[in-house]
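Thread: "does anyone have the structure for this chain?"

Original post by V.I.:
We have the sequence but no experimental structure in hand. Need at least a predicted one for the grant figures.
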Amino acid sequence: MLLDGEAWQARFRDFRTEAWRLETLPAYNVPQEAEEIQSFLAGERIDPHTYSNEYTEDLKRVRREGKIKGRVHIVTRPLSAYLRYEFMYYRPHVWAGEDIRIMDVTDRINPLADCQDFWMFDRTEVVLMNYEPDGTQISREVHGGDATPYIEYQRIALVESVPFEEYVKGLDV
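Reply from O.Q.:
Generated one for you, tokens below.
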């Protein structure tokens, strides 16, 4: 089953304990971000201390309700322009309550090299994120099978990654 619109939004509103994501791409082609990326490349930056939007407010709600929202992003250096842009937003997202971790596989074998992007809700429902090679999203598809392999992918990603703030210490991001 493909997910879009209200059915997709409901996953984030209605999860009971955890919404978790694995990100594997160095760039995502999101048309709504094009102008912001151009501004970023021109040197504009947000102030992470004052930045707030609908997403950060929702993260705060999730934490108040005792839920967890997290992700691991697999990266290689040098970081793509898109990753540097995305990292600018990761700091206020972490401060708002999201558990963001980075798995840098620059100098080692990627134990999740064959794994595609996915979201997992409450460790029971997996939504596969399907992308073109350039990072353009094709679809979101509910995985109809057992979630156990994805729980294992999550375990590996968490063990093999470090918290975002630790990863960026000393980096110019």
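V.I.: this helps a lot. Residues 5-168 form a domain with the Endonuclease; Chain A fold (CATH 3.30.870).
O.Q.: and The chain has one domain: 5-168.
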